[in-house]
């Protein structure tokens, strides 16, 4: 167990730091594997909190302004019995909007807050903002019609602390995923805090694929920096962790600071820092190194999504209210700081524990093996997508163009989506498309562009390689234009395209209209 006192002493010799410059701040995320235990206790939770404090000390040497820990990063993934084990480590978290409290300075002000005290001291003595995830407990009684039978709510909760250790915010997860002992937040939570150099908001894991709260935070509240603590299950072919992160950042015109739980046996790994226009500033998707801290300089104002030459259909009209991102010229970072060279990731052995989406409802077009280029229009009902492609090198690898307008099933949980996608396949069989490659391919694209008009105003783009790494952000671009149809409904035309020939074989390239 790490000694918090020694960490504090060492951190005191370091000078305080502000944001890197007036245009950026420095963020860090930890792709963390919690200390293994058969059951969750206060002691095991504190032990992970001391590890967080160790990372905070390391991050201070790198002048980090903001440190993010993953979902269940302090408690581990063990699902507790809420009548027993949970009560030993769940924290009684006060409302920071009603009181001003520094747990490090005032440890006795509230009972059952030892974990909060450790994180607060890590923030204070390392002069950085910290976001961590734990289980929060709140009592209730029979005046609350929704009060559980044991008289208490247990929430999956993110807590944030200012750089002086003051408790800044708490956020309860709204959309649970296989968490039977946790209560969902009973209200929509738009927790936004000003951390001095920018405003940030938190969402937790499954919240991010629902319209609320993230779309309101971005569209109506103007938040450009989202802290994302997650235990994300890697789901092929469209939403592995790196695919999700880059598509959210580039599709919504924001910075996404994502810390994932490292548990490859549960299909969980992959963390990073992503921005609109560039995608990954720094990221890891690496089986070999649990506990990796990823650091990058983040633009205070992410690039605005470019509409380029895209136009609304003849029967639709522009909706200028739906333009996301900064209203000033794009800020391009020059030689951004990264703790490790980009990309920082490698898959050192086959990761065969991906969860797979069933593609049986998709419309498929398999590429003609005798053609080096083609133009294809493909529809699913009234939803249509357009594809242009040209190969620079070609072997006998099978590629498919796939379109869906309906529901995808993930572990029994339905996603309503519209999808335009190009996928590598083992053969002309939908069940083999967009999966971990069994054999190496030498097929590469000279040109590739996918375009579609979606029945909402949020389209998520991504390109993912057969090496299970992102296609580098500079090698492709995304354009979108928001419109409204003749009946007043929101629609968006989106286009994802290579900027030139790529040497990296593509496994999946897609546009997703994901939000309900």
TrEMBL record:
Residues 1-19 form the signal peptide. GO terms for molecular function: hydrolase activity. This is CN hydrolase domain-containing protein. Coiled coil: none annotated. InterPro entries: Biotinidase/VNN (IPR040154), C-N_Hydrolase (IPR003010), C-N_Hydrolase_sf (IPR036526), Vanin_C (IPR043957). Keywords: Hydrolase, Signal. Belongs to the carbon-nitrogen hydrolase superfamily. BTD/VNN family. SUPFAM superfamilies: Carbon-nitrogen hydrolase. Pfam families: CN_hydrolase, Vanin_C. It comes from Strigamia maritima (European centipede). PANTHER family: BIOTINIDASE-RELATED, CN HYDROLASE DOMAIN-CONTAINING PROTEIN-RELATED. Residues 25-300 form the CN hydrolase domain. The lineage of its organism: Eukaryota, Metazoa, Ecdysozoa, Arthropoda, Myriapoda.
């Amino acid at each position: 167990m790490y000694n918090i006192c020694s960490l504090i002493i060492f951190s005191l010799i370091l000078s305080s730091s502000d944001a890197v410059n007036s245009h950026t701040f420095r963020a860090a995320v930890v792709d963390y594997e919690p200390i293994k235990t058969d059951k969750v206790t206060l002691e095991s939770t504190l032990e992970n909190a001391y590890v967080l404090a160790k990372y905070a000390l390391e991050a201070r040497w790198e002048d980090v302004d903001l440190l993010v820990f993953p979902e269940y990063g302090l408690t581990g993934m063990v699902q507790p019995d809420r009548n027993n084990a949970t009560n030993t480590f769940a924290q009684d978290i006060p409302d920071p909007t009603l009181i001003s409290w520094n747990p490090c300075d005032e440890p006795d002000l509230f009972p059952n807050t030892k974990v909060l005290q450790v994180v607060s001291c890590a923030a204070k003595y390392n002069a950085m903002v910290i976001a961590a995830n734990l289980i929060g407990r709140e009592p209730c009684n029979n005046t609350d019609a929704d009060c559980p039978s044991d008289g208490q709510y247990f929430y999956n909760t993110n807590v944030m602390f200012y750089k002086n250790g003051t408790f800044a915010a708490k956020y309860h997860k709204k959309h649970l995923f296989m968490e039977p002992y946790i209560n969902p937040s009973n209200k929509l939570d738009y927790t936004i805090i000003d951390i001095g150099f920018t405003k940030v908001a938190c969402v937790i894991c499954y919240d991010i694929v629902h319209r609320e709260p993230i779309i309101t935070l971005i569209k109506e509240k103007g938040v450009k920096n989202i802290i994302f603590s997650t235990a994300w299950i890697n789901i092929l072919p469209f939403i592995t962790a790196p695919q999700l992160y880059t598509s959210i950042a580039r599709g919504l015109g924001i910075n996404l600071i994502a810390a994932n739980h490292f548990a490859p046996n549960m299909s969980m790994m992959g963390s990073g820092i992503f921005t609109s226009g560039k995608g990954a500033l720094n990221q890891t998707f690496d089986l070999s190194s649990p506990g990796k801290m990823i650091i990058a300089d983040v633009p205070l104002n992410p690039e605005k999504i470019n509409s380029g030459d895209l136009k609304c259909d003849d029967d639709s009209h522009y909706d200028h209210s739906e333009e996301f991102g900064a209203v000033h010229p794009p800020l391009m970072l020059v030689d951004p700081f990264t703790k490790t060279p980009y990309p920082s990731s490698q898959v050192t052995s086959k990761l065969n524990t991906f969860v797979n989406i069933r593609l049986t409802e998709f419309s498929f077009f398999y590429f003609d093996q005798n053609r080096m280029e083609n133009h294809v229009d493909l529809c699913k009902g009234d939803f249509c997508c357009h594809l242009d492609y040209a190969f620079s090198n070609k072997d006998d690898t099978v590629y498919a163009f796939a379109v869906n307008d309906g529901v995808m099933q993930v572990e029994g949980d339905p996603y309503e989506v519209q999808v335009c996608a190009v996928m590598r396949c083992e053969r002309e069989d939908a069940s083999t498309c967009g999966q971990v490659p069994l054999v190496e391919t030498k097929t590469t694209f000279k040109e590739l562009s996918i375009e579609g008009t979606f029945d909402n105003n949020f389209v998520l783009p991504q390109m993912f390689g057969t090496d299970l790494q992102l296609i580098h952000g500079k090698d492709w671009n995304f354009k979108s234009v928001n419109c409204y149809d003749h009946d007043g409904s929101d629609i968006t035309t989106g286009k994802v395209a290579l900027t030139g020939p790529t040497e990296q074989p593509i496994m999946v390239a897609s546009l997703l209209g994901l939000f309900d």
